[in-house]
Amino acid sequence: MGGSIVGWGSFLPELVVTNQDFEARLDTSDAWIVERTGIRERRMGGLTSEMAVAAGRRAMDRAGVTGDDIDLLIIATSTPDRAIPATSSLVHSRLGLRGGAFDLNAACAGFAYALVAADGLMQMGHRCALVIGADNLSNVTDQTDRATAVLFGDGAGAVVIRANGAPDSFIVAYDLGVDGSLADVLYQDHGGYIHMEGREVFRRAVRAEVDSISAVLERAALKPADIALFVPHQANLRIIEAVNSRIGIDIDHTAIILDKTGNTSAASIPLALCEAADAGRLREGDYVLMSGFGAGMTWASTIVRWGETR
Ligand code: ACO
Asked: Which residues line ligand 1 (CB under 6 A)?
């Protein structure tokens, strides 16, 4: 019934938008953005489906699987190409996959939610899942509003999970949550732009992540020192630092890419995970903790065991 992550891949659009680019057109500064967020540049452009196809193909190549091998596709996104049909339909067709496909919207917590959903469906008999986080938030951000424009970027990241006959699931523990009473602190109406109460989101995000991570560590009977790599949602370096210091996870054991990508919503965790995996930061048997929070307000944390031969 078990499975493992056997491939990963990511995609970022070519257009680099630096803090200096914003300085030139908005009442902001590189110093303000870096100090308050840690972001230095982000990528923009591209449809969610196109980015998802590119990341998905790279993950499949890395895993050495073809479309015929994959019997489940989940795309975590809150910026689908169209309201209907789901972006996963297009991606499924372009990658030539088999089996079912669906979109999952849990905002920036989407990828961690999707991993848990994929694991559950694999327990029910699916053999090989492609899980993608993809978003183009720049498209739904008012580029003249300094409070939000500097924060968001576009991208996609993907993993292939293949059944391996192991008795246990590759997910060691998970925690999913939502508090819909906070829906108004971060939302985007149809046809509108993202509205965000930044300070409130910041405060709630730290609390939600700390509680959620504490819960998964307890469920997994692990200590913070047992986590080889923490892959947090990449919204704000200060949020990551606040969570790390409260939980007791060293920044050296944390994957951080937001300086180069900004907040890419559901893509942020897989983008950071892919970069860490490509850099050789993950070894067989490592415990990897992923944790995200987002509009909803949603949150999700999961600890996975890295590697094929556990
Ligand atoms: N440049 C210069 N000044 C700015 C900018 C900017 N880009 N943006 C806001 N300011 C100003 C504000 O207008 C305010 O000015 P005032 O004091 O005259 O009113 C001042 O800076 C301070 O604003 P705050 O909002 O209090 O600044 P804060 O330190 O909280 O940082 C930020 C703002 C970066 C948005 C922070 O609150 C944050 O990161 N919040 C969490 C956001 C987040 O994680 N969102 C994603 C959630 S995931 C999802 O689902 C998409």
From this structure: 28, 32-33, 36-37, 107-108, 146-147, 150, 186, 196, 198-199, 201-202, 205, 235-236, 263, 265, 294-295
